[in-house]
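Q: Give me a backbone?
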Amino acid sequence: MSAESTRQATEASGGATQYIQHHLTHLQWQFGDSTFWTLNLDSLFFTGLMALLFLAFFLLTARRATTGVPGKFQAAVEMVVGFVDGLVRETFHGRSKLIAPLAITIFCMVFLMNFMDMIPVDWLPAVWAKANELAGHDPHHAYLRVVPTADLNTTLGMSIMVFLLIQVFGIKHKGVGLFVKEAFTAPFHAEGTVMKIALAPANILLRVIEELVRPLSLSLRLFGNMYAGELIFILIALMTLNASWASGMTYVMGSMQLVAGFAWTAFHILVITLQAFIFMMLTVVYLSMSAENH
């Protein structure tokens, strides 16, 4: 390889690295000098936007609901509500007016946040960069990530709330005494005071591990799938667009990007729906387990 070829390959590699890093960097705001108190403003903004969209859609549909032939929006909402309500009735064996609305909210919110991955990776960041340029700021340092569930902070925050709900449901359905007692007497049951005391450390250790694993598994599963999906979209755009600019074959590589992007989008729709369903179902299952007596 000649020196010129090596230089061009190095520049292309550096440009590719910068492209990926730019798309994987959050718009952040930091409190003081501590990096711990840092907010990912883009994740917070798009999470709030999806929450407003969810509320507006369901409230508007509820106010316009009719007893006759339902419209398209009403039919879609009724399908979602009926589907989730049926799953909750089969899975949750206790009594609670909160479970079904909670399950619907989790499914719709996670689906909407996941669906942001369907927007082409360069569209909204390009708009944000142009807005920064018009405002007199450096457009090259205008970062924006639009998929909240590709941010571990978002998925971990939702999982922590599920973890707290599990404890609340356990105490509500069993009482404080039975809730604490089960922590020391399950899963290893024993007869006699001596054996119960002997097995108590193992039981409480397993209980702590079980409770900590639940939010970790919930958050990491959703985050890992959405982060990987976002990265694949970035790589598709990188390989096709960079190749078209380097070779001058803009129309050919642009068509390849369209085909590759469409193929991955068709598959990824299944992924984002499945991940929303899994997060919802595991939440309902965990809450059902916390309400049952061992």
